[in-house]
Amino acid sequence: MKALFLLSLSLLAVVSSAQDFDFFYFVQQWPGSYCDTKRSCCYPVTGKPDPIFTIHGLWPNYNDGSYPSNCDRQNDFDAREIEDLEKTMQKYWPTLACPSSDGLKFWGHEWDKHGTCAESQLDQHSYFLSALNLYKKANILKALQDAGIEPDDRYYSVESIKQAIKRGVGFTPGLECNKDESGNQQISEVYLCVDTSGQEFIECPTFPRISCRKEVQFPSF
Fold this sequence. Notes:
The protein is built from 7 helices and 7 strands. By secondary structure, the protein is an alpha+beta fold. Strands 1, 2, 4, 5 and 6 form a 5-stranded antiparallel beta sheet that branches. A two-stranded antiparallel sheet has the order 3-7. α6 crosses α7. The termini are far apart.
């Protein structure tokens, strides 16, 4: 009886962990900043990505700033589930990690760590499709260029970058910055928030603890 009770609690914990989140972060990264670091980068086997913001991930989060991860080890990534999306993902969700690869390891990591924590809402195919659909709604590069902010190695104020994205997308973004080999701080990632259905952008309940200076570089790619 005790063993059955413990098993029930264990199963309840697994179900709760898969269902219990408050919103998603939809994260796009600038490849020029990813590659312009001491770590450097490797282009995918399909070649150098286009000079556009690309998808990093769709991450379930809690309102207090914490997040669930690796919620269902029984539901591993299966590349067959996204065969029809693969070409689109190679363009808009490419891997830049070394060694050069086809992206499957990167996408598998995103599903196993983050996607499994939203499986009550989205199965594997729907998870990746939702991210691609959100990407179509949030053209970060266009929003910045419309405001005269170009990837030209110049420095721009963080506030002007945020305001440009808000005007273009309609929602306040969070920014993450990294440093190049010379220690110059550059815009690296843009965070937008999405409701638990994975379909609609919302104002962010909270942002990650991110440290960007008042002005950051927008490196070319």
